[in-house]
Amino acid sequence: MFAVFVPTTRCFLRRVLPGPPAAMHRLYSLDVTAPLLRTQGYVDGRWISAASVFPVLDPATGQEIARVADCGPAEAKQAVDAAYTAFDGWRRHTAKERSLLLRKWFDLMTLHKQDLAKLITFECGKPMAESLGEVAYSASFLEWFSEEARRVYGDIVSSPAKDRKLFLLKQPVGVCSIITPWNFPSAMITRKVGAALAAGCTVVVKPAEDTPLSALALAELADQAGIPAGVFNVVPCSRGRTPAVGEVLCTDPLVAKISFTGSTATGKRLLKMAADTVKKTSMELGGHAPFIVFDSADVDRAVGGAMASKFRNSGQTCVCSNRFLVQSGVYDRFLEKLGRAMDAELRLGHGSEPDTTQGPLINTRAAEKVVQQISDAVSLGAKVLRGGKRLDGSFMEPTLLADVTTDMLCTREETFGPVALYKTIFSDLWCWTVTRG
Ligand code: ADP
Q: How far apart are CA 110 and CA 338, in angstroms?
């Protein structure tokens, strides 16, 4: 068994979901400084309501932590119009002025890092240490681009004609639609928005439906930093309203660019929508990262790297290792040491508990997908060496599967869960015995 809080599933559930609701509420209530817990959309420098609201759940407990304005196409259009109107003024700010505002925003993020981290933990499930890490990472983009804002240089290029001079002048493209995932609910926004604002673009952010609170807290701090109205807009919406909001953000002629991080399937949909008006696009889509261990490797270091790259954010990052390819000479040793490291280091629980290293998966759909991959692998002959079970809600036991083969779903699809997969590499035969954990 893993070194979870307690050694059985039942006890684990008691710890995560203590019996009486009142006690559960006391133990895991979201307690952040009032202005940072925003639940309305942020458009043209104002907080706006929508016709309905949608719930934001703590994935560890299933408890509702907030009800957020469920913005629709009308609010999305309002945001695009506001961003378009604001663009003219924002692009005319000097680089220094934009730089100072971004720096102020960075300073405010740093000042409020504890509260921002709590929001991430409660809406996304991450352990607090990882949430604090994300806030620092997220803020660093604003810091970086506040400095880069001053360095948007042009260039002079030699001309093939004697009577011509060629200048390269970099200019902001205009309104950017920013569509972000739930696994880094803060950093995926600032990474895109920092660059856009530094260049003089304005943005409309549509955060993931599971994690709108971090985006709205960023809007509150942007407001406090003095980012002008209309430059940074946020339109949260439920899963149901996402396609309609997405359509506005990807087809409106006033939008010049789309920046998206998420699944390949959704990225393809957005690209199709963007094609009609030939928008510029930046797509960061899924991953299927292999982790390769050769016989010559230092096995202890390889295990350390495997633990960090597989189990960060409970396996829910696009750079988490998805397949472990281990050469036959170190296969058994690597497997055994990795299993022991999993037993010793992984502790499941609510992210606000100081000893938690593994939070829940983002929602029950995510857990169902992982369960499906494990069942498929087992039905095709994989062995479960550790874990393998879904616990309460969207908690998954960290899992190690052996004897995995390439006809199994887990070797072909991104997992986004705490499951590691192993194959043995025979030196001259690319044939695998696999463990996924
Ligand atoms: P996941 O399945 O892991 O949630 P997605 O790629 O579907 O990954 O989600 C990433 C982001 O893309 C989220 O903000 C989500 O709301 C958004 N999204 C999903 N479908 C659409 C769509 N049709 N139009 C615009 N955004 C979308």
A: 36
CB 377 within 8 A of CB 356: no
The residue whose C-alpha atom lies closest to atom 25 belonging to ligand 1 is 246
Protein residue whose Cα sits closest to atom 24 of ligand 1: 246
Cβ atoms of residues 189 and 138 within 8 Å: yes
The residues, any chain, with a CB within 8 Å of residue 190's CB and separated by 6 or more, are 109, 138, 139, 141, 142, 218
Q: Which residues are catalytic?
A: 284, 318
| 102 CA distance to ligand 1 middle (Å) | 27
Residue to mutate, 123, 177, 179, ligand 1, most ligand atoms under 8 Å from C-beta: 179
Q: How many CA atoms lie within 13 A of 383 on its CB side?
A: 8
The SS3 of residue 260 is strand
Range from 54-63, 251-260, 285-294 carrying the lowest mean pLDDT? 285-294
Residue 50 structure tokens: 């929508």
Rounded Cα distance between 333 and 309, Å, is: 19
In the structure, which protein residues have their CB atom closer than 6 angstroms to any atom of ligand 1? 179-181, 206, 208-209, 242-243, 246, 262-263, 266, 269-270
Q: Residue 153 burial by CB count (10 A; 0-12/13-18/19+): exposed, middle or buried? A: exposed
Give the model's pLDDT for residue 421. Answer: 61
Output DSSP code: residue 160. S
Q: Which of 322, 294, 334 is nearest to 414 (CA)?
A: 322
26-72: per-residue pLDDT in tens?
A: 478 899 988 999 999 999 999 999 999 999 999 999 999 999 999 99
Nearest CA to 437 out of 358, 362, 363 is that of: 358
Rounded to an integer, what distance in angstroms lies between the CA atom of residue 283 and that of residue 257? Answer: 11
d(Cα 289, Cα 325) in Å, to the nearest integer? 11
Question: Residue 55: CB partners within 8 Å, gap ≥ 6?
Answer: 64, 66, 67, 68
Q: Tens digits of per-residue pLDDT, 177-210?
A: 999 999 999 999 999 999 999 999 999 999 999 9
CA 209-135-97 angle, to 5 degrees, is 100
CA angle 98, 101, 106 (to 5 degrees): 125
CA 212–ligand 1 middle distance (angstroms): 13
129 CA from centroid of ligand 1 (Å) = 26
Output the DSSP codes for 183-247: SSTTHHHHHHHHHHHHHT-EEEEE--TT-HHHHHHHHHHHHHHTPPTTTEEE----TTTHHHHHH
Hey, how many other C-beta atoms are within 10 angstroms of the C-beta on 297?
17
